Structure formats: structure tokens, C-alpha cells
Automatic annotation (TrEMBL):
Protein's UniProt name: 4-oxalocrotonate tautomerase family protein
UniProtKB keywords: Isomerase
Ranges that cross the membrane: none
SUPFAM superfamilies: Tautomerase/MIF
Residues spanning the signal sequence: none
Acetylation listed as a keyword: no
4-oxalocrotonate tautomerase-like domain segment(s): 2-63
GO MF terms, alphabetically ordered: isomerase activity
Length: 69
């Protein structure tokens, strides 16, 4: 039984967290089930929402990276 843990910056999905998570998990579940040849019911997906101030990339806070993009 595959277990997929998705970590995402919570501010990225703040406009529609339930809708975005539902779409992401459906796409991940379908893709993994098809690739592995298993029933979708056997794919488990969880989300960890991380605040943009607690996530760093290359030593820079994601909050700063998002502000500069």
C-alpha cells in the first residue's frame, strides 16, 4: 500500500486549501494507481502544511523567495 506525504507551503494553497488538496490527491492517487497497477483505494495521501517562514531553500526563507518572484 503506497503512502504519499506531500509537504506544501500553506500560503500557496490558502485561497482554496480543500479544493487544491482534493485535486492534488486525486491526481496523485490516479497516477500512482495506474503506474503501479493497483486499486486507487490502496493509495494513501497526506498533507503537511508548512508555513513559508519555516521552509528554506538554499538558505533563504521561502517567504522571501516568494516575495521576490
Amino acid at each position: 500500500m503506497p503512502f504519499v506525504n506531500i509537504r506544501i507551503v500553506k500560503q500557496v494553497i490558502e485561497k482554496d486549501p480543500d479544493g487544491i488538496k482534493a485535486k492534488v490527491q486525486a491526481d496523485v492517487t490516479a497516477s500512482l494507481a495506474e503506474a503501479a497497477g493497483i486499486p486507487a483505494e490502496n493509495v494513501w495521501v497526506t498533507f503537511d502544511e508548512i508555513d513559508e517562514t519555516d521552509w528554506f531553500a538554499g538558505g533563504t526563507r521561502v517567504k522571501e523567495l516568494r516575495a521576490n518572484s
